[in-house]
Prior knowledge:
Blueprint: E1 15-19, H1 26-40, E2 45-49, H2 56-68, E3 72-74, H3 82-92, E4 99-103, H4 105-115, E5 123-128, H5 138-145, E6 150-153, H6 156-161, E7 169-172, H7 189-195, E8 203-208, H8 223-233, E9 240-245, H9 251-257, E10 264-268, H10 273-279, E11 282-285, H11 294-302, E12 306-309, H12 312-315, E13 322-325, H13 330-339, H14 349-358, H15 361-374
Parallel strand pairs: 1-2, 1-4, 2-3, 4-5, 5-6, 6-7, 8-9, 8-11, 9-10, 11-12, 12-13
Helix pairs in contact: 1-2, 1-15, 3-4, 4-5, 7-10, 8-13, 11-14
Amino acid sequence: MPTKTDRTMTQYTRITHILGALKAGGAERFVVDLLVAQKEMGLPVELVLLLPVRDRVGDGWASLLEKSGVPVHYGPSPRFRPPTIIWLNRFLKQPDIDLVHIHLNYVEAAYYLSRFLHRRKYKVCRTIHNMSPPEPGLWNWSFHHSDIRDSISCGEGCHEAYQSLAKGSLTCIPYGVNFDWPTHNPAERDDRQRALSLDPQFTHYMQVGRQSGPTVPEMQKAQDDLIKAWKQADLGAKGGRLHLIGEGPLQGELQKLAEGDESIIFEGVKNNVHEWFAACDTHVMPSRYEGLPLAGIESVGTGIPAVFTDIPPLRELDSKVALFSPVGDIDALAANLESRLGQRDTESPEHVAALRERFGIGLCARKYSEVYDQL
Length: 375
């Protein structure tokens, strides 16, 4: 973690990060780690949440922020409504706010609407958390008509995708993670699996991500492709167990897709995902698109072998023990999954250490501070 003595920093009174809600997600996890790291650097950071909504993972993050001394402010309504905009406008009018940091497209839409009601005196920037452009409608309009002229991309693929979309400066700072859990170790596999009530006689695969999207075939995390490939290869009958970690509005449709295969297990939201990375045999990311996925960084920073789709953000993770298949290629995905049956290997400790250094939250937080000082 960075310390107050790492560098000479601009003096701030308040740096306000704005998020939607404290619910399990990669961007949300990153912002929490970033806030804790920035607080340790001596920056006066705070978090504004538009919606007073949390899940079990969010409860843990709220406790961490409180313990770290990061103030958290909650909006008035559990849904995005006019009172949310009015509340945000009043909050941003406070004269001692020096810098506002926007995260996620719908948050920028709220910021855009609230800006009609006040003249800002603070600096402002955004982090772009995904390769996909803002959705049509208000989110897209807000992004292209916003007064934000300084952006940070979360990875190389995201940076390239937004070169022609973001106005003003665009700085690439890859996501960082606070790696505070053990690395993958086959020698401890059985004990770690038993601690999670998993039977070590099976090969355990895990996938982490929100089960959401416009429709099932358009889901970012492509759990539908994973279920199809799993069933096609009949991996349950061959000793495999697939654990889908996460929740979302499309979970019911995914469960229908998985019907008849009891080896596909919907685990729900977990607040101990790192224990799963350290215990399972393979991490699967069949994503259709990503920014720079936190789950992927956590995966390679743990050392668990992976099955990825062949997209630039997943190549950027630099795993030496990952298998890749084209997006949407069910046959190739099924073959990669089957090739992992019975495998008990791991990434080399040296490469894991290098990845933890590269994607550590300390380096990321220092680079963010440098961008702030240049605004």
